[in-house]
Amino acid sequence: MIAQTMLNKTCLIAGMVACLIGSKSDAAVNFAEVSAQSTGDVARELDRRAAEHLETMKVYPSAVTSDEDFLRRVSLDLTGVPPTAGEVTLFSFNPSSQKRAELIDQLLTSDAYADNWSRYWRDVIFSRATDERTRRFQPVFENWLKSELASNQSWDEIATQILTATGDVSEEGSTALLMAHGGQPAEIAAEASRIFLGIQIQCANCHDHPTDQWKRADFHELAAYFTRVQFRQQMDGERRTFVIASLDERGRRGGAQDLIKNADRIVRLMDRNNDGKLSKEEAGNNPISRLFDRLVQTIDVDKDGMLTAEEMKNIPNMERPGQGSAEYYMPDLNDPSSQGTPVHPVFFVNAEAAPQELPDVARRTFLAETLTAPDNPWFARAYVNRMWSELTGSGFYMPIDDMGPERIAYAEEMLDLLAGQFVAHNYDMKWLLKTIVLTNTYQRALTADSDMMFAAGTPTRLRADALYDSFVKALGMDTNPNFVALRRRTGMGGPMGYFRSPRFQFTQLFEFDPSMPQADVTGTIPQALFLMNSPQVEQAIQATRGGKLTEIMQRFEKNDDVTRELYLTVLSRQPTESELKIAREYLGEVKNRREAFEDLYWSLLNSSEFLTKR
User: Fold this and answer.
1) Are 230 and 324 spatial neighbours (Cβ–Cβ below 8 Å)?
2) Largest Cα–Cα distance in the chain?
3) pLDDT class for 291, splitting at 50, 70, 90?
């Protein structure tokens, strides 16, 4: 039997090795020809194909998980919030054969669904931001995307808005990707490809891709789509913000290209002594005077401190990344100081070139339309692969953002079935999530003896926001008036309040890049110390003396019933007989009933089970 961990290390490492299960991707597939099927039909077909894979490997899948575990798993996956003890009990006693499907619909229409996934994509974009100044605008992106998700905007439309965004970044959340990388074309191109196509095209920045078919020109032709994006600081009264704008004809005035084109005319007009050279004094207060010293250092061939028309015609590319440039130049690695080779926008997947006369936003719109088109299979595959991995613990491609025609996919026919239906349903994200979580493959129980893909559930570490909400729920902090007031006072008052909020401070410690494979997501010493020794956790548990724990102990006289309620509250399940026995023995040793249950509370909050989705 080939374990999933071995599969990750062999057939999914950069497409460099062969694998017995899987095949290279067919980039020519056209999902536009796929007819839409119902959620149930697609879920059943996915299960059938998963069963075929397991049968081939002589692996027997685990049973479908219990109602308790399904409720917690799907609640955390879809909304990032665990169920309450009461919700667990009610769901367990619900006799309806359709209760799981009904629950899924209920979760997908909740406000928490939009909260959860807006935070997920915030982490995807900002965890790799190259301009740290832009992190303070994270809540603007969250609020924008939350609104889009709540209205069930399609994934292709959201991607288009992100790729074509302009405006004040403190008001326009769709500018997040462009602003997170300071408007730099190469950085934006790399992240746009990684996020929307699952392809690491940046590996072809300095040389042809070492393990894929992409050439160096492919990367820079993609970057050329973003060369006219401007990221600039702007003062709005006393408020400093940043703006994503487009370079236009007026914006190019005074740039290097204009100096080169008008060199003869500039020298002729400013050369007062008619010696064919321009001194700094002769430049006067004209715009060129601001660049004069830099130009002398760069192009003054005879080192006389003056500039000739011929010297000005040899100005290298002096544009600052992110400030916009009329044209894009691929750097010459043999001569870094030179302007480089002019490159026009071309989409590397299908070699479709943008018309050269298009201005900035129209050029980026052309890219977005080409990138999100049904005949580009990588757009749908990338989203489906990412969501499958997020929900089940492992994708058809791993890592999830390193796909491509030279990569090996596991059960690729299942990926393409789901991707084709995702396109046929107009990139409906809720449809996709519902289809995946309805499958028996998603709902399988955990087992200790199989980590084969499709065979059993996979425990995965909770993202920081879900872990925070789990603490809030488990400790009854969401019903504590003082805590709610604190959140309103410091967490809802604009960006600065956002960064002082308890949620932000907690997530700063526990956040990780959602694009990382789960095997690479490990706890840290500061996280462990926070959970075990932090005054905040201790105070929160002690605060339950007037709240959650007190209420539970007053409601139940028997110790076993209190223990059961604590397990339901923290872990969303009943304790086993062995766990009940351990609790009884500990209560007998400690004698102090209140103190013993506080210790039990603490131990459950520090358990690996609480920190993971099972």
Assistant:
1) yes
2) 103
3) confident
Closest CA to 376 of 558, 600, 159: 159
Buried b (16+ CB within 10 A) or exposed e, 552-570: bbeeeeebeebbbbbbbbb
User: What is residue 328's three-state secondary structure?
Assistant: strand
C-beta separation of 566 from 601 below 8 A: yes
CA distance 181 to 226: 11
Which residue, chain included where needed, has tokens 């084709």? 420
| pLDDT tens track for 113-156 | 999 999 999 999 999 999 988 889 999 999 999 999 999 999 99
Closest CA to 426 of 393, 476, 383: 383
pLDDT for residue 495 is more than 70: no
Residues contacting residue 143 through CB under 8 Å, at least 6 positions apart: 118, 173
Taking CA atoms, 84 is separated from 111, 301, 567, in Å, by 17, 75, 11
Sign of CA dihedral 405, 407, 413, 414: negative
Ordered by start, the domain boundaries in the chain are: 4-94+392-398+407-458, 464-613
Predicted confidence band at 529 (pLDDT cuts at 50, 70, 90)? confident
Strands 352-353 and 346-347: antiparallel
